[in-house]
UniProtKB/TrEMBL annotation:
Residues 29-360 form the Aminotransferase class I/classII large domain. It is an enzyme of class 2 (transferase). InterPro entries: Aminotransferase_I/II_large, AspAT/PAT-like, NHTrfase_class1_PyrdxlP-BS, PyrdxlP-dep_Trfase, PyrdxlP-dep_Trfase_major. GO terms for molecular function: transaminase activity. This is Aminotransferase. Belongs to the class-I pyridoxal-phosphate-dependent aminotransferase family. Its cofactor is pyridoxal 5'-phosphate. It comes from Novipirellula caenicola. Its EC number is 2.6.1.-. It comes from the Bacteria.
C-alpha cells in the first residue's frame, strides 16, 4: 500500500462491484438490469429550470443550507406531514451527502449503528470511515423489519438505528406497524433514528409510511436523485431536530459547502412535477418481472423502489451472477449488499424490451443447471 494512504481507507473496499463492471465491460450488447437509477430522463421542466438558472447567473455558491425558495417549499411540505415543533430542513449534496453528515454529526468512534442486512452498500463503509461500528441485523428470508431482532441487537454502545424503506437492494417496504414499533423502541431507549427515504416516491401498494410519524426526533434523508432521475445533479435534503440540522450545516460549510446551485433551482421546479405516470409504469414493471419470475425463483415481492432480490438457484449468488453475465445479463451479486452470498439484485428500472430479455435469460437459468 502507498505509504501516504490513511488507515481509515483500509477498513472497507469496493472490489466486489468493480469486478462486476469489469466482467460487464467485455459484453457487447448486454441486458443491463444492474442500474440504480430510473430509465426515464429528467423531466423537461426541471431541465429548463436549471438551464434558466445557469443562464440567469445563478452559478455561485448558494447559502450552505440551500436556496431559500427550495428550503421553504420543502419546509411547508414537511410541516404538513410532520407537524413537529422542532423540525428544520436543509439541502444536502445528494442523499449521500446527507448520510455522511448525519453520521459525522451523530456517531462517535466506537458507537454502534444498527441496520438491516441486506443493506445499501454505503452504510457500513461510511460508518467505518467515521469510526462507527456497523451492526447488521440479518433479515433473511423475507427482509422484514422485525422489532424483536432490532431490540436484541441493542447494546449500551448503540447510538443509532438506520432504516431504509423502500429498501435497496430488496425493494421491501416496512409496514406502518413495523415502523411504529421501531420508532417507539428508539424513543424509549433514546437512540437516534435515521430514516433513508430516497425511494419514498416509488411506493406501489398503499401509502408511503415514515417512522417520523411515530417519533418526532427522527432524522429523515430524502432527495431528488431517484424520484426525478437527477442522480448526477446532487440534490438531497435532511430534516430533523433543529440542533442536529444546525450541526450538520456546520460540517456542510466546511466540506460540501452547498449543493450545486443550478441543480437546486431544478429541484424547486421538480417539486411541481407530477410523477404519477412514472410510478404507475414502474409498478407495472414490478408486476411484470415478479409475475414472470416468482414461480421459478424465491423472491420477496418488492412494495417499492425498483429492485428485486431473488435467491440464486445455486449455492453462490456471486457465481450465479458470473454465469448470468456470460449469458449477456448484467445483475449484481447479493454479497455486495450482505454478509450472505445467496441472492442477486435485479433493477427493473429498464425498458420493457430489456426486462423481457432479462427475464428470459433468468428463466432459462432457474433450474440451477447452467
Ligand atoms: C438507499 C440509498 N440511499 C442513498 C442513495 C444515494 O442517493 P444520492 O444519489 O441522492 O446520493 C442511494 C443510491 O443508490 C440508495 O440506494
Amino acid at each position: 500500500m502507498h505509504p501516504w494512504i490513511a488507515d481509515r481507507t483500509t477498513t472497507f473496499d469496493s472490489s466486489g462491484i468493480r469486478k462486476v463492471f469489469d466482467l460487464a465491460a467485455k459484453l457487447k450488447d448486454p441486458v443491463n438490469l444492474s442500474i440504480g437509477q430510473p430509465d426515464f430522463d429528467v423531466p423537461e421542466a426541471v431541465q429548463d429550470a436549471a438551464i434558466e438558472a445557469i443562464r440567469g447567473g445563478k452559478n455561485a455558491y448558494s447559502p450552505t443550507q440551500g436556496i431559500a425558495p427550495l428550503r421553504e417549499a420543502l419546509r411547508q411540505e414537511i410541516a404538513e406531514k410532520y407537524p413537529h415543533e422542532d423540525r428544520d430542513v436543509f439541502i444536502s449534496s445528494g442523499t449521500s451527502g446527507g448520510l455522511m453528515l448525519s453520521i459525522l454529526t451523530m456517531v462517535n468512534p466506537g458507537d454502534e449503528v444498527i441496520f438491516l442486512d441486506p443493506f445499501f452498500v454505503m452504510y457500513p463503509a461510511l460508518l467505518k470511515m467515521c469510526g462507527g461500528v456497523p451492526v447488521a441485523v440479518d433479515s433473511y428470508p423475507d427482509f422484514r423489519l422485525d422489532v424483536n431482532k432490532i431490540a436484541a441487537a441493542i447494546t449500551p454502545r448503540t447510538k443509532m438505528i438506520l432504516l431504509n424503506s423502500p429498501a435497496n437492494p430488496t425493494g421491501v417496504t416496512a409496514s406502518e406497524a413495523e415502523l411504529k414499533a421501531v420508532a417507539e423502541l428508539a424513543a424509549e431507549k433514546n437512540i437516534a433514528l435515521l430514516s433513508d427515504e430516497i425511494y419514498s416516491r416509488f411506493f406501489y401498494d398503499g401509502e408511503f409510511a415514515s417512522p417520523a410519524s411515530y417519533n418526532d426526533q427522527t432524522i429523515v434523508i430524502d432527495g431528488f436523485s431517484k424520484s426525478h432521475a437527477m442522480t448526477g445533479w446532487r440534490v438531497g435534503y435532511v430534516h430533523g431536530p433543529s440542533e442536529i440540522i444546525r450541526t450538520m450545516l456546520k460540517i456542510q460549510q466546511y466540506t460540501f459547502v452547498c449543493a450545486p446551485q443550478p441543480a437546486q433551482w431544478g429541484a424547486l421546479r421538480a417539486m411541481e412535477v407530477n410523477l404519477g405516470g412514472h410510478i404507475e409504469d414502474y409498478k407495472r414493471k414490478r408486476d411484470m418481472v415478479f409475475d414472470a419470475l416468482s414461480d421459478c425463483y424465491e423472491i420477496a415481492k418488492p412494495g417499492g423502489a425498483f429492485y428485486m432480490f431473488p435467491k440464486a438457484p445455486i449455492d453462490s449468488g456471486a457465481k450465479f451472477v458470473e454465469q448470468a453475465i456470460e449469458r449477456g445479463l448484467l445483475i449484481i451479486p447479493g454479497n455486495i449488499f450482505s454478509s450472505r452470498d445467496s441472492h442477486f439484485r435485479i433493477s427493473f428500472a429498464a425498458s420493457d424490451e430489456q426486462l423481457k430479455r432479462g427475464v428470459d435469460i433468468l428463466r432459462s437459468m432457474a433450474g440451477g443447471s447452467v
